[in-house]
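Sharing in case it's useful to others searching the archive later.

Someone asked me privately for the predicted structure of peroxidase, so I'm posting the question and my answer publicly. Question first, with the sequence:
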Amino acid sequence: MKMASSINKMHILLCLLLATLTTMAQGQTRIGFYGTTCPTVQTIVQATVRSAFQTNPAVAAGLLRMFFHDCFVLGCDASVLVSGPSTERTAPPNLSLVGFEVIDAAKTQIETVCPGVVSCADILALAARDAVVLTGGTAWSLPTGRRDGLVSRASDTVNLPAFNDPISVQISKFADKNLNTQDLVALVGGHTIGTAACAVFSYRLYNFSGTNQPDPDINPAFLPQLRALCPNGGNASTRVALDTGSVNRFDTSYFVNVRNGRGVLESDAKLLSNPTTQTFVQRFSGAAGVPALNFNDEFARAMVKLGNTELKTGSQGEIRRMVSSFNKMHILLCLLLATLTTGAQGQTRIGFYDTTCPTFQTIVQTTVQSAFRSNPAVAAGLLRMFFHDCFVLGCDASVLLSGPSTERTAPPNLSLVGFEVIDAAKLQIETACPGVVSCADILALAARDAVVLAGGIGWRVPTGRRDGLVSQASNTVNLPAFNDPISGHTIGTAACAVFSYRLYNFSGTNQPDPDINPVFLPQLRRLCPNGGNGSTRVALDTGSVNRFDTSYFVNVRNGRGVLESDAKLMSNPTTRTLVQRFSGAVGGPALRFTNEFAISMVKLGNTELKTGSQGEIRRLSESKAMLASYFL
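And my answer, the predicted structure tokens:
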């Protein structure tokens, strides 16, 4: 079990509690909710959707699907419209949604006429209804009065019905939303308009369930038509009508197609695998021998029922001013909660855990030592991880958090190693001293112990840091890069992909970087041939990859710096002098590298500290970093 990469549930729950902003007063949706406060809302939405439909009829299916995906996740609260890292909009099932610009256009006009009155959730519900009408469906009276949600998380989309769900799973997912089997079949009938990419169903055409044969549920006469549209190995993004012959008409031909084995998606075909859903398909399609059901009427009834799923009304949620972002006040409130600062401040100090967890340092030391014996490269990994952590929002272990759009997913951090070492230490420490030692302090000590194992000297690490509550990939933009003007390394490696441009085509010259020692160049080119394996790793300190010593500075001084940032240390008079002093060059007063490194590490470790009652002492690491998405 990992112990260093999740935000404590209590703070997530507190933020969710704040997000609901419910003051006991409750409300309900009703017909004519905006009759006096914004009487033109329906006219504005209708005209906006009509204009978009005239330009692109496919937008109708997009709006209907968007409404469905919104309601199925935390209710019909427009959370699918919110943009930003790790929001619902970024989840794989939602990446192909279209029509956001229609809701934006309608909201802009409505805010001009009735500012702060009409929710995005109601605009989306009205737009979906109007889209159906424009494609030939019948209109229905739509209750309004929804409020917009304050939470949008990609992780919450896991229960969206999928294109390959068995019928039992479909029935279960709809039942969870208080929708019965008839509702399911009626709402899936929305596939009468719209399309799907070949990538979503082509496995049915060539290699269904690993058989190298097509799905036997596909009508053999229909199979060549689908294969012609989606050839094996062809363009996976090609879109195919879900209702063959009637792609932009809202009618019952979809059910006729499904009944005749011409369902495009596996989930559509599976409607015939269950006696109850099969009967509804037959009734909606007008099959002989069963009492007919009016699809338009039942679809409208199911849409109203779906639209009342997990409602936010009254004083819950908010009336969002912008479609794609939460109102700033709620963001600030949530951020205020996230800091959890009560006014009391603390400081790091030597011996912070002497009474509360006296074995803490020993546990970290033995854990790092064990990892180093198995793989000496882990020392450089832990040191680099600490540096990357401290440089982003301070030394708060935010780099350890896993999940979409966390710091850990940012390009500079994808090559970090050693997470398992921190996890192992945290697990042991939680057993000995539960809820006492922060992941930030474990990482700080691990980095120190890694340096010692590689041959550096030890130093006393002040402790008492708290773990951060925010981890966003976007915050890593200011991390020093391999081609920044200045930087420094002594243990560890870099992939050829990071520096090979220096060997063959520096600054577009088709020549090597002139800062590379000509004698050193052939050695690097042998390790990283032009067009070779970009993942091959090369020592940053040639001849001393796992030893913490001054040879790195000797190499840099002699034009044998591997990274451009290392070489650039010689381009500035001040940094060049320090390189010379650390390397023991003749003609200048020497500086003891290990001592100065220790001083700098303590200084770095005190960057943007969270202490006292700020942040938290993180306990778990199994769940993703969810809280960050509330602030976007």
